[in-house]
C-alpha cells in the first residue's frame, strides 16, 4: 500500500479483499493491471476466479453492493430476506413467554446490526433495549466470570417491538448514502451551537426547524425562523415524575402525534433544537431504559410513517459556561487532541507569508488562534464541528485534524464554493489514504501552493519546497 499510494494509486486492502478507485475508467484499467503485476512479482498467489478486473460502478464488496453512481450501500436481496426470516423465526420461537438461549437471540441481533452500512443507524437505535437485556443476562454471574451465552431468557414486549421495527426497516430502507465529504446543510441561527453528522447525505431540500423546552409541568414547542410558539403541552402527574431528558423526548413525541397530518404534507427533514444532551443521545443511540426506549421507538416509527427524518441539534442551557466547560472537558481525554508547538507554528506562518486567522480543529487549551472551531461545545468556540461550518475567503484557516480526517478536511476545503486558503498539517505518512491525493508522482497536487516540512516538536525545522 505504501508503494501504490506513493505512486498516486488509490487502493486499499481489508484482510484478503482489495479495491482500487479512479474517476477515469481507462486509467483505472491500467492501474489494475499494474496492481496485479506488482502482487504477482511480490510472490502473491491471486485468486483470479474471485477477482473482478473490469472497472464497474456497482460492485459486491465485503457483503454489500457499493453503487458508485447512486453513492449508496445496498444489501444483497437474498441476505435481507434471510435476516428478516431469522427475525420472524425468533419472534415465533419466543412467543407465549417461551425461552431461548442468549446465543440464539444475539445471532439474529448481530446480523441486523451488521446492516448498519446499508440501512443506517436506525438498526442500532431500534435494538438498544434487547441488547441491554441480553447483556445483563449473560453477565448475571458478575464481571469476573465468563459470559454465559447458553443462558435462556424470554423476550418482553419492548424487545419484540424492536425486532418487528427493524424487520420493517430491512424491508423498506435499503440504500444508505456513502459518507459525504462535502459541505452539510447547516443552519446559521444564533441559537444553534451543535449539529450532527446525520445531516450528511440527505439530498431532499424540504425541511422544517423546531425548538422545544420542557419544564417540570409544561413543554413549549417553537417553530424556528420567527420562533413562534406553536404548541404547549401540560405533562400528566406520571410524566412530571420522569427525568428531564424523558420530558424533553416526550415534547418531540407529542408534537409528532398532534401535528401528524401537517408533518405528512411536508415530508423531509425536521431539525429539532433542544437543550437536552440526553435527547440528542436518545435519538442517535436509543436508551437501555425500557420506558425511554419505548418512546424513542415510537418516534422512529412515526418518522417512517410520515416520511420525515428528525435530526436533533443540541443548544446550551442559559447557564452556558457551565454546560460548555463540562462537555468541552471530554476533549482532553481524546488522543485526537494533538498539535504542533507555537514556535513551529510561527515559523510556518513566516515561511508561507500568511497569518492564520481561524483554527479549524482545536480546544480552548491548544488553539493556535483566538477564533477556533471545536469538536465539543467549548467556552470561546466560534462554532462546533469544522465540517458544519461555511468557510470564508476572507479567512486563513489552520487545519490540524485527526489523521483519519485529513482527506475529509481537504475535500471539505476543495468543495467550498468560495476560494479558500488553508494550512493543512499532517504526518508524512505514505500509506495513508490522503497521500495519493496530496502527492501525485514526484510533485504535489495542483491545489498545493506551498510546502513546509518540519522536524519533531521543539527542534529546528528544515523548510524546503
What is the CA–CA distance across the termini?
25 Å
Helix content: 25-40%
Instruction: Report strand order across the widest sheet.
Output: 11-10-9-12-13
Low-confidence stretches: 181-204, 318-333, 457-465
- What's the helix count? 17
- The 3D shape can be described as globular
Alpha-beta content class: alpha/beta
- CA radius of gyration: 25 Å
Mean pLDDT across all residues, rounded?
82
Major sheet, described briefly? 5 strands, mixed
Strand content: 15-25%
In total, how many beta strands? 20
Features:
single chain; 465 residues; five-stranded mixed sheet; five-stranded parallel sheet; 20 strands; 18% strand
Describe the fold and architecture.
This protein is of the alpha/beta class. The chain has helices at 2-6, 25-41, 77-93, 102-113, 116-119, 122-125, 128-138, 157-172, 237-240, 244-258, 260-265, 277-285, 290-306, 320-328, 342-352, 406-414, 435-438, and strands at residues 10-14, 17-21, 58-61, 64-67, 72-74, 100-101, 152-153, 176-177, 207-214, 218-223, 228-234, 268-274, 308-314, 358-359, 371-374, 383-384, 396-399, 421-424, 439-440, 443-444. The strands form 6 sheets. The chain has a 5-stranded mixed β-sheet with strand order 11-10-9-12-13. A 5-stranded parallel β-sheet has the order 16-15-14-17-18, with helices on one face. It has a 4-stranded antiparallel β-sheet with strand order 3-4-5-8. Helix 3 (77-93) runs antiparallel to helix 4 (102-113) and helix 4 packs antiparallel against helix 7. The longest helix is centred in the first third of the chain and has 17 residues, at 25-41. The radius of gyration is 25 Å and the shape is globular. Residues 181-204, 318-333 and 457-465 have low confidence and may be disordered.
Amino acid at each position: 500500500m505504501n508503494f501504490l499510494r506513493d505512486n498516486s494509486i488509490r487502493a486499499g486492502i481489508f484482510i484478503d479483499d482489495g479495491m482500487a478507485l479512479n474517476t477515469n475508467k481507462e486509467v483505472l484499467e491500467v492501474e489494475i493491471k499494474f496492481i496485479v503485476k506488482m502482487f504477482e512479482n511480490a510472490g502473491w498467489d491471486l485468486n483470479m476466479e474471485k477477482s473482478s478486473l473490469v472497472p464497474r460502478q456497482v460492485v459486491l464488496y465485503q457483503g454489500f453492493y457499493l453503487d458508485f453512481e447512486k453513492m449508496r450501500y445496498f444489501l444483497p436481496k437474498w441476505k435481507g430476506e434471510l435476516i428478516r426470516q431469522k427475525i420472524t423465526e425468533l419472534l415465533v420461537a419466543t412467543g407465549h413467554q417461551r425461552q431461548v438461549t442468549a446465543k440464539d437471540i444475539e445471532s439474529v441481533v448481530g446480523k441486523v446490526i451488521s446492516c448498519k452500512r446499508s440501512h443506517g443507524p436506525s438498526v442500532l437505535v431500534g435494538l438498544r433495549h434487547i441488547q441491554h437485556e441480553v447483556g445483563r443476562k449473560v453477565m448475571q454471574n458478575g464481571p469476573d466470570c465468563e459470559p454465559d451465552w447458553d443462558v435462556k431468557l424470554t423476550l418482553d414486549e419492548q424487545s419484540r417491538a424492536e425486532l418487528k421495527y427493524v424487520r420493517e426497516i430491512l424491508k423498506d430502507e435499503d440504500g444508505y448514502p456513502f459518507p459525504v465529504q462535502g459541505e452539510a446543510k447547516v443552519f446559521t441561527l444564533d441559537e444553534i451551537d451543535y449539529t450532527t453528522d446525520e445531516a450528511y447525505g440527505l439530498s431532499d431540500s424540504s425541511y422544517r426547524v423546531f425548538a422545544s423546552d420542557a419544564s417540570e409541568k409544561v413543554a413549549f414547542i417553537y417553530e424556528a425562523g420567527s420562533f413562534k410558539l406553536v404548541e404547549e403541552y401540560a405533562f400528566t402527574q406520571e410524566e412530571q415524575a420522569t427525568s428531564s431528558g424523558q420530558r424533553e423526548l416526550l415534547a418531540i413525541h407529542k408534537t409528532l402525534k398532534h401535528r401528524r397530518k401537517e408533518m405528512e404534507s411536508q415530508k423531509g427533514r425536521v431539525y429539532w433544537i433542544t437543550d437536552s444532551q440526553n435527547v440528542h443521545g436518545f435519538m442517535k443511540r436509543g436508551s437501555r431504559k425500557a420506558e425511554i426506549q419505548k418512546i424513542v421507538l415510537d418516534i422512529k416509527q412515526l418518522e417512517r410513517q410520515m416520511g420525515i427524518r428528525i435530526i436533533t441539534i443540541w443548544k446550551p442551557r442559559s447557564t452556558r459556561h457551565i454546560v460548555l466547560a463540562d462537555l468541552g472537558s471530554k476533549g482532553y481525554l481524546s488522543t485526537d487532541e494533538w498539535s504542533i508547538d507555537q514556535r513551529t507554528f510561527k515559523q510556518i506562518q513566516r515561511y508561507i507569508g500568511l497569518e492564520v486567522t481561524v483554527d479549524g480543529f482545536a480546544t480552548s487549551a491548544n488553539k493556535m488562534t483566538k477564533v477556533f472551531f471545536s469538536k465539543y461545545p467549548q467556552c470561546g468556540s466560534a462554532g462546533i464541528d469544522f465540517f458544519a461550518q461555511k468557510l470564508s475567503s476572507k479567512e486563513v484557516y489552520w487545519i490540524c485534524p485527526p489523521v483519519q480526517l485529513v482527506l475529509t478536511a481537504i475535500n471539505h476545503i476543495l468543495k467550498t464554493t468560495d476560494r479558500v486558503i488553508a494550512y493543512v498539517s499532517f504526518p508524512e505518512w505514505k500509506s495513508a489514504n490522503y497521500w495519493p491525493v496530496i502527492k501525485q508522482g514526484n510533485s504535489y497536487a495542483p491545489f498545493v501552493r506551498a510546502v513546509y516540512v518540519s522536524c519533531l516538536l521543539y527542534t529546528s525545522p528544515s523548510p524546503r519546497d
